Amino acid sequence: MQIDKGEQLPLQNKLRYPFADMDVGDSLFFEELSQVESAANAAYAYEKKKKNGFKVTRRKLENGYRLWRIA
Predict the structure, then answer these.
(1) CA 44 to CA 49: how far, in whole Å?
(2) How far apart are CA 50 and CA 17, in angstroms?
(3) Which residues sit opposite 60 in a β-bridge?
(4) Centroid of chain to Cα 7
(5) How is 1-70 classified by DSSP, letter by letter?
(6) Can you give the pLDDT of all 71 residues of the chain as single tens digits?
(7) Of 5, 28, 43, 56, which one's alpha carbon is 20 to 30 angstroms from that of 15?
């Protein structure tokens, strides 16, 4: 087995959701409750890391769920 030195680890975009591109009033649609819950948890973690006041709310709709940026 050969050891390679100086190989850089490729950067990964860990953001699964486009929170950085969202303005207040923008929303994301999800078909499943588990999907919107996952996105809401990710939004809370995003705010905790960035400390930028990013806040979301979610609502059940007839055909799925929507997550809105409210701050």
Answers:
(1) 9
(2) 15
(3) 65
(4) 30
(5) -PPP-SPPPPP-----S-GGGPPTT-EEEESSHHHHHHHHHHHHHHHHHH-S---EEEEE-SSSEEEEE-
(6) 888 888 887 766 566 899 999 999 999 999 999 999 999 999 999 999 999 999 999 999 999 999 999 99
(7) 5
